[in-house]
Each structure stands twice: as structure tokens, then as C-alpha cells.
Amino acid sequence: MLRPLPLLTAGVLAGPVAFGLLGTVLPAFGMLVPDAGTPWAAALDWPGLPRALGVAVLSGLLSTAGALLIATLILAGWHGTGAFAWLERALSPLLAVPHAAAALGLAFLVAPSGWIVRVPATLLGWERAPDLLILNDPWGLSLAAGLVAKEMPFLLLMMLAALPQVQSHRRLRVARSLGQGRIAGWLKAVFPGVYAQVRLPVLVVLVFGMTNVDVAMILGPNTPPTLAVQVTRWMTSPDLSLRAVAAAGGLILLFATLGVLALWMLGERIVARAGLVWVRAGRGLPERLSRGAGFLLAAASSLMVLAGLAALAIWSVAARWSFPDPMPEALTGRSWARFGPDMLAVAGDTMALAVLATLLSLALVVGCLEAEHRFGFAPSQRALWLLYLPLLVPQVAFLPGLQLLPLALGFGPSWPLVLAGHVVFVLPYVFLSLAGPFRAWDARIARVAAGMGASRDRVLWRLRLPMLAGPLLTAAAIGLAVSVGQYLPTLLLGGGRVTTLVTEAVALASGGDRRAVGIWGLGQTLAALLPFALALAVPALAFRNRRGMRHG
Predict the structure, then answer these.
(1) Which segments of 119-231 are extended strands (E)?
(2) Which of 31, 75, 119, 357 lies most in the core, judged by the most C-beta atoms within 10 Å?
């Protein structure tokens, strides 16, 4: 019964991507969409295309390089210290914060009338906000900065998980014994092995930086927007012929993404050769400057996101708050009374969708990992690429096809279609978070139980899964957070009929009611953070008398 599950899981990952790409290619060449005309010509003739592509490439490269640099510096300079433990605790909650909620909070900070400007404005006596295009700047620099702040904790977590696999302590000790400084020794001896382990997550960050929609709609430029945002506008336009143009635009972005991935891989080789020359030369780095820069950048990134969330919370209860006052004149619950009931109703729908998508993903992942254990399936590098496939292919390249092809077959946008789309993106994260603990479980326990007459199914349900309660709950919390943050699959596959916290928050971001944005953004943040709090609390309470099982 379990043997077909790895193939089924592979089909869940690859099938929608292939199906969606087919549904995108056909309209791009004038099929499936009536009165499509010449989609390629319309997409290529769009006046904003060069700038939109340039901003997408720039934001992707800057955000990926910035997040990787900060994560590397903080690990190289501070791993194993008390300061790193403090910073790790500050960064951990940021992993669960949805991208849209973090972007909304950052927008409240960096806007010309935002919190950052209000402090000097109060001291200097400014009565008006400065006329500066900080937010939604034409080159997407605020977009890149927001992505760095959000993606750096993710890459840091991936690198931390890779450290034991490369024997980082041994390598660093050898480098230090040869006279290298802490950071120079880490970069020369440890970083090559760590980067080999996290290369796929880095590429995922690069693709997301180029092709994200929700963050780009909040922090990115508007005239023109990024290409991913423009493709989304074409897809949601009342003019149905523009959906073929959207398909062509999605393929243009796909080709551009493949080109940037090739450029990044070429850059890897250039950096590797330059690094080899540096290693042979025996030169070091300015240790104090590098360590200080790494800590300050990582602390600034975490504080920016946390301060942004605080701004969301304050705006949600703010009465009159005029510029340049650093705090509102009074706090009130009127905004919650006005917008709270609708937000809570949508939050219930959001969590129902997230819970079902996570349960389906957990069932597939547990079945797949158990089949791997029972039948000796050895995961290959090709299987790892398959796992990352939905994250490496731009969403705007295959989600339009997942909307158009079922529509041509008589299946319109619906809640089940949205659920299927969420599973495609939730499943990889659940698998990645659960695979390590599942495979590391001591198999000797199963052999002892088998010697006492227990079947393999009984071992799974009565021993393995209860003992992995902590990792299972953590994987479920990650799945819920990923589902809560899915904007484009909900928008396109639901056809506007399925509303979630993220779709409502992004829709309100273009309006002027900061109190409503604060409530909806805060609701989305709490919907993602509460499952993590439960994932920590439940094992501690359930196994309070069994110390070894509290953390799985």
C-alpha cells in the first residue's frame, strides 16, 4: 500500500507544474483563449517590458546576494557565541511571518511618512513628510531590501542545518591552526561545503526574488510594475483576450529566470576560482569590520521586520496619528469593531484551507518517508531537484496554465482547485522539515518492537509517530504558515471567489486606510505564528514528564 506513495508524491510535485506549463504555452500561441490575436507581439510591445524585466532581475540578484552575504557573515563571525544565540532567537519568529505581512510592516516603516522618518522629523521640527520616493522606487531597491530582510533568516536556517554535515568545527579548527582568522578560516574551509548543501535553497530565493507578486505589489514600483505583477494584472483583467498575453508574459519571465539562473551558476564558478586564488595567497580579512558588519546587518534586518509588525499592531488600534508624531494621540478599538469581524471570518476560511492542505501534505510525506524506510528507496540528487521543482519554476509561468487549461476542460476556478494549488507549495516545505528527523529516528527501536511481535504498521503508529510528535507539529506549523502566505495560487486558481487573509491584505495595501491594513496584516501574522507557538507548547505539555520526547 505504501510502495506507490513516492511516485504519487512525485506526481503531486511535478504534475501540476507540467500541466500548468502546457496550459501556459498553448494560450501563448493563440490556443484555448478566444480572440487571442498575437499574444507574443502584444507582450513584447508592452512599453514597460524592458524596465519591468530589469527591475525583476535586479531585485532577484540583489536580494539573493544580500541575504546570502549577511547569513554567511553572521555564521562565520558569531556562530557558537552568546550574541548569536540571542540573534537566532530574534530571527526564528521571522521565518513564520508571511511575506505580505512583513512587506506591509516594512512599508509602514520606510514610507516618507513612516516611523523611520517620524523620529528625525520630530527632532528637527518638520511639519510635512519629505517628498522622497523611498517606497515603490522605480528600480525596486525597497523591494530588494524587503526581500533581504525576509529571506536572510531562511538561508541562515538552511546553513545551520548544513553545518553538521560538513564537520564545520573540525574544518575551522584546522584553518585557525594554520593562522587564519575566524571569518577568513570559515570562508575558506567551511563555506564551500555549506554552500554545496544549500545551493538549491539559494536558487529558490533567487527565483522568488525575481518572480514574487505580493511583495512586489506592496514594495515594488508601480509605473511600470515588475513583470510578474503585470502578468497577474493581465490574468485578472475582465478582457479575456489578455489572458493569452499573460501566458506569453509568463513565458518571457520564465526564459529570463532561466537566463539569470545560468548567470548565477556562471558566477559560482567565477567566485570559486577567485576563492581558490585567495586561499593559495594566504591572505585574510579585516576580522573586526567583517564581524561587526555581519552582526549589525543581521540585527538590522530582524529589527526592521519586528518593528514593521509592531507598526501594524499600533496602526490597528490607533486613533488620530498625525505626522510627525512618533505615536498616536490615543488608542481605540473602533477599527477592530469595524474590520475585525470580517477579518476573523476570513481567517477561519484561511485556516480551514491551510489545515486541509497541511494534513494532505503530511499524509503524503509520512507515507513517502515510511515507504523509503521499508523498501530501501534511496533518494537521489534528481529527487531533490524534483522536490524543489514547484519552487524553482516561477509561479506566473505555470499558475496561469493551471487556471486556463482546467477552464477549457470545463472546470472553473473553485475552492478544491485552490486547495490543490496550496498542496503543491506546502508539500516541499513539509518534506524538507520532516525528512531529517524521520530518517534520524533510531531504527533499533523498531527492531526491538518487531522482536516482540509488533507489525511495521503498529511500530509506525504507536512508536515512531508519537516519538516524532515535535518534528511533526513543527512540520505542520511550517505547512500552515506557507499556506497562509499563498497569494498568487489563491488569486488565480480561486478566480476571486476564494478570499484569504493574504488576498484581502494585499488588496487593501493600495488603499489609504492604514488601520484596515494593520488589522488584516496583523491577522495574517497571527495566523502563521500561533501554529508555531502550539508546536512548541504541545510537546512540552504532553511530554512534561518525558524529557527526551519534548523536542521530538
Answers:
(1) none
(2) 357
Which residues neighbour 462 within 8 Å (Cβ) at sequence distance 6 or greater? 454
Strand partners for 331: 318
* 129 DSSP 8-state letter: -
9 touches 427 (CB < 8 A): yes
For 195-211, write each residue's pLDDT tens digit: 999 999 999 999 999 99
CA-to-CA distance for 69 and 226, rounded, in angstroms? 24
Q: For the chain, what's the residue count?
A: 552
Q: Which residue has the cell 569590520?
A: 289
Q: Among candidates 353, 254, 371, which has minimal Cα distance to 17?
A: 254
Instruction: Please give the single-letter amino acid code of residue 156.
Output: L
For residue 318, give the 3-state DSSP assignment.
strand
> What is the Cα–Cα distance from 355 to 351, expressed in whole angstroms?
6
pTM of the predicted model, to two decimals? 0.92
**How far is Cα 515 from Cα 508, in angstroms, rounded to an integer?**
10
* Contact in structure between 505 and 484 (CB atoms under 8 Å): no
Task: Tell me which amino acid residue 471 is.
Answer: P
> Band of the pLDDT at 402, cuts 50, 70, 90?
confident
Distances in whole angstroms, Cα of residue 344 to Cα of each of 44, 90, 237, 532: 43, 28, 29, 19
Instruction: State the alpha helices, DSSP H only, in 380-494.
Output: 381-392, 395-408, 415-440, 443-451, 456-459, 465-467, 469-484, 488-494
Cα three-residue angle 318-486-468, rounded to 5 degrees: 105
Rounded Cα–Cα distance for residues 148 and 65 (Å): 9
CA angle 175, 181, 186 (to 5 degrees): 55
Instruction: Assign 65 a pLDDT band (cuts: 50, 70, 90).
Output: very high
Cα radius of gyration (the chain): 24
Q: Is 282 left (phi over 0), alpha (psi -120 to 50) or beta?
A: left
Distances (CA, A) of 166 to 68, 157, 194, 436: 18, 15, 7, 15
The residue type found at 294 is G
Distance between CA atoms of 356 and 451, rounded to whole angstroms?
Answer: 37
Half-sphere exposure (Cβ direction) of 44: Cα atoms closer than 13 Å: 5
H-helix or E-strand containing 258?
Answer: helix 242-281
CA–CA separation, 510 and 218 (whole Å): 8
